[in-house]
Amino acid sequence: MSTVDQQLEELQDQITNEIPPDISVTDVKYEGPELVVYTRDPKQFAQDGDLVRRLASKLRKRITVRPDPAVLSRPEKARERIMNVIPEDAGVTDLDFHEDTGEVVIEAEKPGMVIGRHGSTLREITEAAGWTPEVVRTPPIESSTVSNVRNFLKSERDDRRDILEKVGRQIHREEMSDDEYVRITTLGCCREVGRAAFILSTPETRILIDCGDKPGSDDEVPYLQVQEALGAGANSIDAVVLTHAHLDHSAFIPLLFKYGYDGPIYTTEPTRDLMGLLTLDYLDVAAKEGRTPPYDSEMVREAIKHTIPLEYGDVTDIAPDVKLTFHNAGHILGSAVTHFHIGDGLYNVAFSGDIHYEDTRLFNGAVNDFPRVETLVLESTYGGRNDYQTDQEDSERKLKRVINETYENGGKILIPAFAVGRSQEMMLVLEEAMRKGDIPEMPIHLDGMIWEATAIHTTYPEYLRDDLRDRIFHEDENPFLAPQFNHIDGGEEERQEVADGDQCIILSTSGMVEGGPIMSWIQHIGPDPDSTMTFVGYQAQGTLGRRIQSGWDEIPMPDRQDGGRTERLQLEMDTETVDGFSGHADRQGLEDFVRTMNPRPEKVLCVHGDESSTQDLSSALYHEFNMRTFAPKNLETFRFI
Amino acid sequence: MSTVDQQLEELQDQITNEIPPDISVTDVKYEGPELVVYTRDPKQFAQDGDLVRRLASKLRKRITVRPDPAVLSRPEKARERIMNVIPEDAGVTDLDFHEDTGEVVIEAEKPGMVIGRHGSTLREITEAAGWTPEVVRTPPIESSTVSNVRNFLKSERDDRRDILEKVGRQIHREEMSDDEYVRITTLGCCREVGRAAFILSTPETRILIDCGDKPGSDDEVPYLQVQEALGAGANSIDAVVLTHAHLDHSAFIPLLFKYGYDGPIYTTEPTRDLMGLLTLDYLDVAAKEGRTPPYDSEMVREAIKHTIPLEYGDVTDIAPDVKLTFHNAGHILGSAVTHFHIGDGLYNVAFSGDIHYEDTRLFNGAVNDFPRVETLVLESTYGGRNDYQTDQEDSERKLKRVINETYENGGKILIPAFAVGRSQEMMLVLEEAMRKGDIPEMPIHLDGMIWEATAIHTTYPEYLRDDLRDRIFHEDENPFLAPQFNHIDGGEEERQEVADGDQCIILSTSGMVEGGPIMSWIQHIGPDPDSTMTFVGYQAQGTLGRRIQSGWDEIPMPDRQDGGRTERLQLEMDTETVDGFSGHADRQGLEDFVRTMNPRPEKVLCVHGDESSTQDLSSALYHEFNMRTFAPKNLETFRFI
Ligand SMILES: [Zn+2]
Ligand SMILES: [Zn+2]
Ligand SMILES: [Zn+2]
Ligand SMILES: [Zn+2]
Ligand SMILES: [Zn+2]
């Protein structure tokens, strides 16, 4: 008998001893980080509202109770009983019964009403029907991404259960080494922005954190091929952790599955969906530009199938010696500061991922409150000595001025924006400005994936700033549903119409003018001296966005009539940069993030910034807080213990 | 056709064009780093004394010319012709004809006379006989190690040719990467003494430098198992380079072959033989102590078979992007400072290995003169702030005083010493002291492998200090042949006799009192208050030597009558420490080594010393020379380019 089987047998005995004698335990299994307890008495289990919580704290495991398939009531009968328990206002849109596990997935417009206070309604559902309920939100704006992901996972349930069981057994394997070390290896994103990838390693466990591409570069990819990365094969990695969905962190996650990786990806639920959206688009763009994509959409589906979503604050065993906890990073939807607790008190490492320290309209500011962190890996996008950004209030004032001036000149406002994050922040700013009369009412066209990304935001309001979340719960106050927003879904024809039409604001991807519909908008708007291109986000070196921002007035453009040939396009439009909307903390925010940590880390690795930004920030943190700081290079390994 | 075959074909054309039309080239092949040129006209090739040198410099390759087997004269006929050419005084002891390659190995007491001025006699041999001569020295003191290695390599010639051809093709493979980096990974020997092991890596090439054990520790071995070491298999390493034969650098070299390594080991010829001697003894000791040896003697033979010996100063291609050069390190016989020139001007790294900066009786001081070195990996055994050692002159004075006092008291002098290095240094000091009458004449008993190690020293006088080398060439002045030296080859019986007999000096292994005959000598001499145990070498933490040195007067001893049981032995003998005979540079020597480098390296990694020694030295070099210095931990990776 394997040690894991032995462990499970002991757990089953322990549970049987802890619960009332009239409640049976027919089986216990690991599914990913959770311990699943099967019982012939699901209703009695549910009656004691505190029983599962007590068990979980006793066993120090996350516990799910499921009915033994032998005692399941028929779905038709269960449906009736469940619908009787759930208040009508909850807006249930779907019930999905899975007889293999006794789970029923309830999709509702107001999931909170299905859950009830402290989960009381969920327990009532089990007491009434004997099934184990799981609740998801009906997207307030229809999202093909969300429904595709949900349908795909439904169709792959069997496969996924096998994956989860295998991962569960891996997590709970016995520790093999009596050696101790904790190390970080840098595979990218050091002294540069892009291709984020790190390995956190102990004698037991190797975890890959992020695996992104580098905007503005074709051939600079993370150093996956070196020995300490995937040299011994992709399955030499035990787990992948994804901080957020931006492509400079996520683009090559699906590639791991092409390389044979077969383990879990830990991330938040919105990051999973956004990763699906963004990586599929990434493949699309590559194909359109005639480049060979490094993997195909099948690998994106593999990535989604292997994702184990975690919520902010959940402390989760992901290896015998590693506990992972995500915290809000304030950067984009689902973005996480990632905290690793290693070896039962031995060491703690936090990766900031990308962070925004102050609250924004969309998100609460990044969490920096951990019981312990000895080493912090900190982004440094705006870590340079002069990278202080305008307050968002001033930025909004400037943006409104730019819009008003352009409007008075009779021009249009073209804003390149990442589909995810800055676009939604802009939408909130613009919606309020129009509502309050600070700028004239005019259509706001959303092109590229902005609309779809917005739909995903409204599916996960728990991840948004608290007051915004509350507004979305009331459909009539959902700012994303304001009537001036128009989804460009009519292609070139619609763009031509808009270009020929009245004054308007256009938000379009890609955010660094590296392709996508913005290229078409530049052809329409670029030659108009009355219009304004307004940059509201970071433009990486080497991108067309950076070039236009820094004054290029002639750019190469593929001739639309004559496919292959490249023409030069003369830019006459005005260009403006409005700082302060960045999803990244500025220099002040980065220092504040560190200053307000308590206790402060002993060591900080400054990454995800160009050479001078990481070195400036490293030196500043050293002098200000007397900690050991580093500006690592790619392909280095730091040992902490 | 492979790129290597294509390369060889081009080389053959080039050679044909460079040489007179009447000299044929029938084949060219790589054998390890050498290019072997086969010709039907070996005699004509030899006639132009400068032709090979011109070709080598033109082609930037090391070139050996061999007769095409089809034109070989019969060995009996060749023998006569060869013996006619070689002066009788050369003392030829063996001729060994290899018809497969047209080589004749000439063993002679005076190899210089077989070689002639600038190789003139060698060329005469070829002109006369058509065979390609290779010369080795007849050991002045019979050495079973040397003859075993030579006989073994003779019996494995076919295998070895295959190995060399494979290695040669590997060295001259095409470069694959257009990326650039140079990194060092520390697998041991950082903030500690022992288990030396480093990886030098570029996008093309991974080189393991040293692979030793840690004296005083059973379970602290080099971190070979981590991904960036042998995680992807032992053949993920392209080459192994061994700085010297001490077990803290060499013990696990044969283990690599057990792990499946099949590539070359680059080292000097004496280091190859000493490694054979020391690792076989290491296995012996393990077996005697009832430990399971990590590999068996077959693996030692594999290591010897895969060794490509290089001489000091030879610049050798060992990978498409790496040239290796060894330089005298002054530490033990064959020890080398190891210089890597990477990527045709890109970067240069030197590993000091263990060094002695000043001349000693045995060796010239370490070489620190390189065209370029950007990073130096420097041993720090005596790098601590107070690790200044006595001058050797003062040390010799003290040693003589200790000997004279002990002699007057009627006691014996017991000196634990490494078989290799310190023992021979002691022999030279004692021989001279007796000859000059500074200490009384008495027998000097050599126990353990000291005799055999001394025989190996006399086989390779080119590696000894110049004046010593010259003395050895004249048999009557060879100090190692002085009559007071007695080889203990009669086991316990002889030891008992010596113990019961007159005053004497005993040199015995192991040098840190970790086993070997010294254990027996301690039982004989330890209880005698008139005798003196004199430490002349570094005693590592955790070793019994360190304990006795620091005052332990009772030590555990296996009871000889009753095998298993451990008795306590009361030590009554005096203990003395005479510094200054170390094979290691002291703090002053380490600083001098760096100070006199020109140009100085930009970065120094201080390794091979305990934590405070490496940190003291690192900080001193930083402040004195304003270079970037580090005291790495094990398991870190530093990137330089
Ligand atoms: Zn980001
Ligand atoms: Zn990023
Ligand atoms: Zn040594
Ligand atoms: Zn050493
Ligand atoms: Zn082999």
Automatic annotation (TrEMBL), chains A, B:
PROSITE patterns: KH_TYPE_1. Residues 5-72 are annotated as: KHa. Zn(2+) 2 binds at residues 248-249, 354, 608. Binds 2 Zn(2+) ions, which are required for nuclease activity. The keyword Transcription applies. InterPro entries: aCPSF1, Beta_Casp, KH_dom, KH_dom-like_a/b, KH_dom_type_2, KH_sf_prok-type, MBL, Metallo-B-lactamas. Residues 423-548 form the Beta-Casp domain. Residues 583-641 are annotated as: Metallo-beta-lactamase C-terminus. The keyword Protein transport does not apply. GO terms for molecular function: DNA binding; RNA binding; RNA endonuclease activity; RNA exonuclease activity; zinc ion binding. Keywords: DNA-binding, Endonuclease, Exonuclease, Hydrolase, Metal-binding, Nuclease, RNA-binding, Transcription, Transcription regulation, Transcription termination, Zinc. NCBIfam families: arCOG00543 (TIGR03675). This is Transcription termination factor FttA. It comes from Halobacterium bonnevillei.
